[in-house]
Amino acid sequence: MNDAEVFQIWNVGFLSPQRLWLLLIIPVLVLVYLLMQSRRKVYAARLASTDLLASVLPKRTGWRRHITAGALLLGLGSMLVGVAEPAREMEVERDRAVVMLAIDVSLSMEADDIQPSRLAAAQRAAIDFVDGLPPGLDVGLVGFAETAEVRVSPTRDRNQVIRSIQNLELQPATAIGEAIFTALEALQNTPVDDSGTIPPGTIVLLSDGETTVGRDDDLAIAAANEAAISVSTISFGTSDGFILYDDPETPQIEAFQIEVPVAEENLEKIADATGGLYFQASSLEELEAVYADIGSAVGVDTEFTEIADWFSGIAAILTLIAAALSLWWFQRLI
Predict the structure, then answer these.
(1) Could you tell me which residues are beta bridge partners of residue 152?
(2) pLDDT one-digit tens code per residue, 251-291
(3) Domain extents for the chain?
(4) What's the predicted TM-score (pTM) here?
(5) Cβ atoms < 10 Å from Cβ of 137
(6) Which helix (H) or strand (E) element contains residue 327?
(7) Could you give the CA distance from residue 25 to residue 33 in angstroms, rounded to a whole number?
(8) Weakest mean pLDDT among 9-13, 23-27, 113-117, 175-179
(9) Judging by beta carbons within 10 Å of its beta carbon (0-12, 13-18, 19+), is residue 255 exposed, middle or buried?
(10) Could you tell me which of 173, 239, 184 has the C-alpha nearest to residue 211?
(11) Which of 228, 260, 229 is nearest to 243 (CA)?
(12) Per the omega criterion (within 30 degrees of 0), is the bond before 116 cis?
């Protein structure tokens, strides 16, 4: 349902808002009711002067009449609101969408500040993420280091994506910008759906560093915005990460440690600039939680769903309450 066609009041929308004018009937009926009560008091005052009539007329409590009338008017109001086709935003499972996973396989992902290593933990969490996505979503995979490559084009074959995640291997350098461009190209090449349009897509990018080669992040951000594709990012690692550099081709150089603290600012900037979500994870458990949150976000869509039945039900209940109270309190009139 197109949200632009829905007239909203607070958190409730109306598909036929012009019918809300019917609610003007309610104040008119209230006015009529008040006039009738005023005339009733005049008649009661006249009868009160006759002792005989006052003695035979049953004593009635006014508030009971008001409650019965109020319930009836509220029921009518609820019914009229239902005629305007009320709707509210609800989460519904997407039946078609594409998620492109982009996973950093640069050498810094070998750091073991997250056991058994950043890459191994990222692979495990990504597999769980893919396995838990709704069946209507296509999933693709991009691996990136010095270059970016589509390892799996968008598909519903979860096993193919999982196998490719398991086969990711470390490579030098980091090309985050290239990863976004490559993922965008894969999304734009997705086959059209039954309506003749490309299904909505999003990119989920995990990295522990900053762009060192390839096109700049700002260019990638501009391309993502032009394509109306959000990029959610995950910075994965801790400030204490390091890798051991030991080149067998130069045995005269003793092995030494290279610090590889996780970079956050660039990834947060990408997410903010493209309308995506930004997360920071410093453990496998945190990463699994992040992927669960992302899965909830990309697996469902928010749209207006008609809830006229709710108001019809409320109207029926209030009308029945008014009828029951009338029979209970004023049965002497029958």
Answers:
(1) 141
(2) 656 667 889 999 999 999 999 999 999 999 999 999 999 98
(3) 3-89+305-333, 94-282
(4) 0.67
(5) 23
(6) helix 308-329
(7) 12
(8) 9-13
(9) exposed
(10) 173
(11) 260
(12) yes
